[in-house]
Every structure is written in C-alpha cells, then in structure tokens.
From TrEMBL:
<dbReference type="InterPro" id="IPR054542">
    <property type="entry name" value="Cys_met_metab_PP"/>
</dbReference>
<comment type="similarity">
    <text>Belongs to the trans-sulfuration enzymes family.</text>
</comment>
<dbReference type="InterPro" id="IPR000277">
    <property type="entry name" value="Cys/Met-Metab_PyrdxlP-dep_enz"/>
</dbReference>
<keyword id="KW-0663">Pyridoxal phosphate</keyword>
<protein>
    <submittedName>
        <fullName>Cystathionine gamma-synthase family protein</fullName>
    </submittedName>
</protein>
<dbReference type="Pfam" id="PF01053">
    <property type="entry name" value="Cys_Met_Meta_PP"/>
</dbReference>
Length: 428
C-alpha cells in the first residue's frame, strides 16, 4: 500500500477513497489522471538479463522480488490495467493477492482446478450457480473429482455431515460455498466452514481450501476473507462491473491460496483483457455508492412486498426471524442485505402474468446492474434442475427473482404495484 493510502500517516483510507488512485503512478503515463488502456499483447524488456529474470519469476523458478510479478512480459500473464484492477479490488477484503479473469466461471474453474486433483472431493452449497453446478457435476466427475452437496445449507451439522461423507469418498480438497444462496437467500456459515476445514485437516492430514463465491453481497456487504475463507471468488459481471455491459471474474485471498490459482490462470488462458479491466476501474469508482443505493431501494421494496396481501413468502438477506440461526449469521457476516430478492406469487401463471405486465423492470437473467431485472427462476436460471430437485430446495413455480437497481424507488414500487394489480385482476 502506497503513501497515498494514508491520511496524515494515521489510518488507512476506506476503499472508496482509494478507487480513483490506488496502484497507479501517473508520472509513468505523462500525468494522465486516468490509467491509459495498455492495449498491447507484449512488453519489451530492457535487457536480455531482465528478460531472463522475468521469465524465471513468472515460471516460479525464482521468487518474485516486485510486489506483484517479476515484470511485464505478455498480456496473458500480466498487464498494467490488470494489475491496477487487482490491487484496487484487493483493498475491499485486504487480500494479499488477487487475480482477475475473463468471466466468473473462468475464476471458479481455475480456482477449483488449481486446488483439486483426481480422487479428490468437494463439498458445495446447493443451489449453486448453474454454471458451477454443471462444472462440478457434469465435467469434473469425468476427471474423478466428486462433489457432495450440503443437504440443508445453513445448518452447521449439515456442513459437518457433508464433509464426513466427502472424506469417506476421497481426499476432501475444497469447500465451495455460495452465500447467500440464489434465489432463496440462505446463508452459509463462513467461519463454520473454516472450522470444518481445520477439523478435516486433523482427521485426514489435508487442509481443504475454503472458497466462497461472494458475487451476491461482495465486496461491499460481505468480506469472506475476514471470516476465515481462503479464497473469495467473484463474478465481476454483476455488482462490481455493475452496468450489465461486461463479463469478468476475480479470485482473491492469501498469497499461499492464490499462488496455484495465479500460476494456472495463464495456462488455462482466462486472463482479463486490458479494455475490460479499464471498464472495471471505472465501475469500481462508484461501486460502494451503487451497491448502497441498490440495497436501500431493495430494503424498501422487500418491506413493501412483505406487506402486500397478494405476495407470499419474500426471501431477502436479513429478513429471517429475530433470534434464528439465519439471522445470527446475517448479523455476524454481512453488513448489508444487497439488492437481490425473491418472492412467491403462488403459481407459474401468476408469475408469468406479473413478469409480462412489468413496464420499468426488465425481464432478463443476470443481476447487479444499475437497472432492475426480473426473472422466473424455475424456467430460466434453475431450469437445469428437475422439478423434484427444485421443490426439495424450496424453489416454487410461483417464485420471482428481482435484482433491484438504482432507479427511483417510488417508480419501482409503482411498477411492481401495477403489475401485481394487473395479474390479480385478470385472475378474477
Ligand atoms: C453470474 C454468476 C457466476 C458466473 O459468472 P460469469 O461472469 O457469468 O461467468 C458465478 N456465480 C454467481 C453467484 C453468479 O451470479
């Protein structure tokens, strides 16, 4: 962290104060206030000796001397835009190392492959993002890596039961957890997963990696690394990018946990291009502001939905009953509810009617953009599950998922209200 990160040498500045400056030296770019886009595939090195040294560091034959890498070589390995984006993103979780990727899935796949080998097992929370589910259960199984879902994500005993089962099947190498879950906002105990990983090390002499997909609340409202996770993974496509105009991912954590991930990234080739890195730098300047505004809107909408006589259950982080285990977890590991919720309209017919009646909110999958998006999980993002699996997970045919954006909250509530009135009207 540079001198610019301290105020009067006393305390660290908040991430939002550093998003405009950290990790970028303007004197190296003619005083340009914003980092230029380093639209280059390769970098010239000053001497043959330095070229040799850069390669030895990049290949791990020599320890790195510089902060991040031995030197700039080739954009699949590193690029100034990539490095600035990584350094800035790290600030939110105080991570030692960060790696950005060409998508959230590239980040997830690279982390898993970096830490798992044939014969290993993975414990994961369910439901998990559809791409992750397919990667674990349709692809990795063919490489002899088996995944064990946690039966009732959220309860501590379920986590331990899944871990014991995974150990009976092979070497337990990873906990891969999404918290809160999507779309029902169930929380999994991050510190509890860390304890289970330590306990597992005592039993089987191998300490599993705790990896948390932090896309839904992070990095503003949840920082898994502070609760003992080894790696925090992001689809930057969602809140961090924030404008539904880019695809990117990231993983961050200790140097030890991230070493194999950073080494594998250029081999699988999922590095992030300089132009998208530059878009991300722009997005990160307003990240805290956007997430705070969206969360404020979402909190008002969730309360309004909960009071609405035509709406069934509403699922939103922090809304679990006072004194419940879920509420306790929310208070311990989240500092805000985010802006993704779901609610039940009773039937697929009512859900479809409601979606088609919306005027301001748009029908689309994805989430975390400045615009409000709405979808029907059972026939879109969770359509890969069987009806039995969905009902086991509590995802009903009447469930609507809403990703609240940054519009004026009164306009959003008016839109939801007119759509609800229209459906309930046509039913009579
Ligand atoms: C979107 C998403 C992903 C995948 O990210 P991409 O950027 O689309 O590859 C992974 N996990 C969660 C929770 C997501 O919402």
């Amino acid at each position: 962290m540079g001198e610019d990160d301290r105020q009067g040498g006393k305390r660290k500045l908040h991430p939002e104060s550093l998003m405009m400056s950290h990790g970028y030296d303007a004197t190296l770019s003619q005083g340009s206030v914003k980092p230029p886009i380093f639209q280059t595939s390769t970098f010239s090195y000053p001497s043959a000796e330095e070229g040799r040294s850069f390669f030895d560091v990049a290949a791990g034959r020599e320890p790195g001397t510089a902060d991040v890498d031995g030197g700039l070589i080739y954009t699949r390995y590193n690029n100034p835009n990539m490095q600035i984006a990584e350094e800035r993103l790290s600030l939110f979780e105080d991570a030692e190392r960060c790696a950005v990727f060409s998508s959230g899935m590239a980040a997830i796949a690279t982390c898993v492959l970096a830490h798992c080998r044939p014969g290993d097992t993975i414990v994961y929370s369910r439901p998990i993002y559809g791409g992750t589910d397919a990667f674990l259960n349709k692809f990795l199984t063919e490489f002899g890596i088996t995944s064990v879902p946690i039966a009732n994500t959220g309860s501590a005993s379920a986590l331990h039961e899944a871990a014991a089962k995974a150990r009976s099947m092979g070497r337990l190498a990873m906990f891969l957890l999404e918290t809160p879950s999507n779309p029902l906002a169930r929380l999994t105990d991050i510190a509890g997963a860390r304890d289970a990983a330590v306990e597992s090390a005592g039993i089987s002499q191998h300490r599993p990696i705790v990896a948390i997909d932090n896309t839904l609340l992070g990095p503003v409202f949840q920082q898994p690394l502070r609760h003992g996770a080894d790696i925090s993974i992001y689809s930057l496509t969602k809140y961090v990018g924030g404008h539904s105009d880019l695809i990117a991912g990231a993983a961050m954590g200790s140097a030890e946990a991230m070493g194999p991930v950073r080494a594998l990234r250029p081999l699988l080739g999922g590095s992030l291009d300089p132009h998208t890195c530059s878009l991300l730098l722009r997005s990160m300047e307003t990240l805290t502001m956007r997430m705070s505004k969206a969360a404020e809107n979402a909190t008002a909408i969730a309360a309004w939905l909960q009071r609405h006589p035509d709406v069934g259950d509403v699922f939103f982080p922090g809304m679990a009953a006072e004194g419940s285990c879920q509420r306790g977890l929310y208070e311990t590991q989240c500092s805000g509810p985010g802006a993704l919720m779901s609610f039940d309209l009773g039937s697929r017919e009512a859900a479809f009617g409601f979606l088609d009646a919306l005027r301001l909110a748009r029908q689309a999958v994805s989430l975390g953009g400045t615009e409000t998006l709405c979808c029907h999980p059972a026939t879109t993002v969770l359509s890969g599950l069987t009806p039995e699996e969905r009902s086991e997970l509590g995802v009903s045919d009447g469930l609507i998922r809403l990703s609240v954006g940054c519009e004026h909250v009164d306009d959003l509530i008016d839109d939801l209200d007119q759509a609800l009135n229209k459906v309930m009207h046509s039913k009579n």
